[in-house]
């Protein structure tokens, strides 16, 4: 029965190797479509693939000959085979920076790498997930790309829609800071201020999806979420390929909803299953800000469920108090022998500065969280400094300048050599 | 005599194919070293190469097999052959975006491309030139990397020095806006505020270079300028390679000092000479802001010399009133059949928004200048819309948010479907 459904869907919906949507909780399968919750148990739907018929070495060659963006992995993503020919922002294939200076400071001897996603078109990893949602929206015949957001997602959706010729409509709280409004507004789509807070915005968006007024609208992280979320798998693929088709021993991933971490695990598992990397153990570590640490709190307490928190941290892009994928993150951290840890706002700022002065990478607060947690986990002996470790930086410091606003001049002098010498700068 | 000097220098200074410094005015050659002005005529020194012994097809293969950054062109740059193994920011190989939406708006039918240098590590083309200066600094034994700057260059120097393990010291006017100070300070080097304006800062830096206090200091765009400037050649190489080893018919380049435009021409000429591209005509167009348009003013008046101006424009990164390479720019524009044009601040802002809403690229004001000039030159019939055209975007809109600060919400509504419908958004 399930097989029949899949076959008929594959005929009509061309999303490459994506075969069906499958419930993460009960396994119930439905045809590919713009749905996100299981009709049986309300569990989250995710993409089930048909990778049968792939020859490992042929696949590896095909990937290596592909474009320098996420579409090199098109055979592993829910996108049509000709996706690279369509207009989109072509994110991904960002630098995996060998961070030897940072390694020295942290005492890592096994090889430390920063996967720097600030190199994406709108300077955050959101370009990866939005690119997936966009292709699904194309296939489903949507004409408006939408989301609620207070930051990176707004820009990623606005930019991707502009390039792809979609209408975009982004919903934000009406009293957002002017700088963030500008970053979202510049792409020329609809930018709607909602009189209310971020929860009100989200509630309104859910209503809109269920209403005829929302017909033809693809909300990237709601009705397109199963497709959107898969974009994070590309981080796993790139890290492994950039390491020479090798799994890292340890990966430190930021947690907002937790989706990214679960998809990185999914991506690594696929690489093993497809024979593209050797099957050996890896540990995944989750990183949160202390001011929004529901998952690390649950991890440390040994709980399986995550108790919601009210966020209060400078790491706004991670400030989700009730992370949907929290329980799955706990599973993965425990299964792989990893951990979930958190750092204070002060430690976040210190870590941003540490990464900038050692490697010349100016990270968003989320990058301060992962680098700070890495430092903390090394000091506590949880992370093994003799192993190959990859730390994710998912965004750009230019978007969270306020976090390091205290940084400034190291000296002020008169424009004379005497003044220069007096300041001890020679 | 000159040959002997070169030979002995090549033995001691390993900068790959760089053979000597040669005066652009009188041709006098001196050994490679941290000097920038001709001892005979005070003309600018630039790198002379020895490309003899290169086989075209071998070179092409070597480049194509190289890393996805400027070091794929190491055989054509003043850097050691093993440069890619040294710690630096590895800039370049940024996207050449086929801008079909923008082409439609501008009526270009021959293929329109945006070379988007906002994808560089610190989000401007300055990473390219600083990377060259850094390698020269290494070879000359400098330990401090320095510059005067009010913007992109400060960040590029700070970041590159951090990663490469150099001390950095950046000089800025003491009253620079806080946001720009933070962007420069975050990399942890010395950031010195000079009591005075930008001219005072530059005067002081010149004094410092001539003083024992400045020993061991490499000022990227002063005593390392001949090396630094060559970084812009990589823009020409990348554009040609990304077009499939083909010259574009028309290129639109922003003009600050004019150096970038002259080096793009130099790069294209080298590709022709080396047989990497077919030798056919191309036109180079220079783009300025009306509020700082000394070169376009001279071009339109038919002058060979450039009369200095006092800059007053939002395009701060192009605001050099007395551009050192202005006369060379005039030569190139005239020789290739190009032109130099300028646009108002209002046209710059319009062009930033046009590029963002058509291609999802958020450009710095300098990108608004090139896109605006492209539009103007098409309208006036100077630029041929049936020819392949490449427009440079050399920086990131996140760094000049103020320019589009007027951009904002398209509507404000209550969080209800009724309010949504009333606003005409359904």
From TrEMBL, chains A, B:
Key word Lyase present: yes
EC numbers on record: 4.2.3.1
Keyword DNA-binding: no
Keywords: Lyase, Pyridoxal phosphate
Cofactor: pyridoxal 5'-phosphate
Residues annotated as domain Tryptophan synthase beta chain-like PALP: 91-395
InterPro entries documented for this protein: Ser/Thr_Dehydratase (IPR050147), Thr_synthase-like (IPR004450), TrpB-like_PALP (IPR001926), TrpB-like_PALP_sf (IPR036052)
Family note: Belongs to the threonine synthase family.
Classification via NCBIfam families: thrC
Descriptive protein name: Threonine synthase
Species of origin: Streptomyces glomeratus
């Amino acid at each position: 029965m399930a097989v029949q459904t899949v076959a008929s869907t594959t005929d009509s919906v061309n999303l490459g190797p994506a075969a069906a949507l499958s419930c993460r909780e009960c396994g119930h399968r439905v045809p590919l479509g713009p749905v996100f919750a299981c009709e049986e148990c309300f569990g989250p739907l995710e993409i089930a693939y048909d990778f049968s018929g792939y020859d490992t070495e042929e696949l590896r060659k095909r990937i290596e000959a592909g474009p320098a963006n996420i579409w090199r992995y098109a055979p592993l993503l829910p996108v049509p085979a000709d996706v690279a020919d369509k207009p989109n922002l072509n994110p991904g294939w960002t630098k995996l920076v060998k961070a030897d200076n940072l390694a020295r400071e942290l005492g890592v001897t096994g090889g430390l790498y920063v996967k720097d996603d600030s190199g994406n078109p709108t300077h955050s990893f959101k370009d990866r997930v939005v690119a997936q949602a966009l292709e699904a929206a194309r296939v489903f015949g949507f004409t408006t790309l939408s989301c609620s957001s207070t930051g990176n997602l707004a820009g990623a959706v606005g930019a991707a829609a502009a390039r792809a010729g979609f209408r975009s409509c982004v919903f934000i709280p009406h009293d957002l800071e002017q700088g963030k409004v500008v970053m979202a507004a510049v792409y020329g789509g609809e930018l709607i201020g909602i009189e209310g807070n971020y929860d009100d915005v989200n509630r309104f968006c859910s209503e809109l999806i269920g209403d005829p007024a929302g017909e033809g609208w693809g909300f990237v992280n709601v009705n397109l979420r199963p497709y959107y979320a898969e974009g994070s798998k590309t981080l796993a693929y790139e890290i492994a390929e950039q390491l020479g088709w090798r799994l890292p021993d340890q990966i430190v991933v930021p947690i907002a909803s937790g989706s990214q971490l679960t998809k990185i695990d999914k991506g690594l598992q696929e690489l093993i299953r497809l024979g593209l990397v050797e099957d050996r153990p890896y540990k995944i570590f989750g990183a949160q800000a202390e001011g929004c640490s529901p998952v690390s709190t649950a991890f440390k307490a040994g709980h399986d469920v995550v108790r919601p928190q009210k966020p209060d941290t400078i790491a706004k892009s991670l400030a989700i108090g009730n992370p949907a994928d929290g329980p799955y993150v706990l599973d993965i951290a425990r299964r792989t022998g990893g951990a979930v840890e958190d750092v204070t706002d002060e430690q976040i700022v210190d870590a941003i500065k540490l990464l900038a002065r050692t490697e010349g990478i100016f990270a968003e607060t989320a990058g301060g969280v992962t680098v700070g947690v890495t430092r903390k986990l090394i000091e506590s002996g949880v992370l093994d400094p003799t192993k190959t470790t990859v730390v994710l930086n998912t965004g750009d410091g230019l978007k969270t300048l306020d976090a390091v606003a205290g940084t400034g001049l190291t000296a002020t002098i008169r424009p004379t050599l005497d003044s220069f010498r007096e300041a001890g700068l020679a």
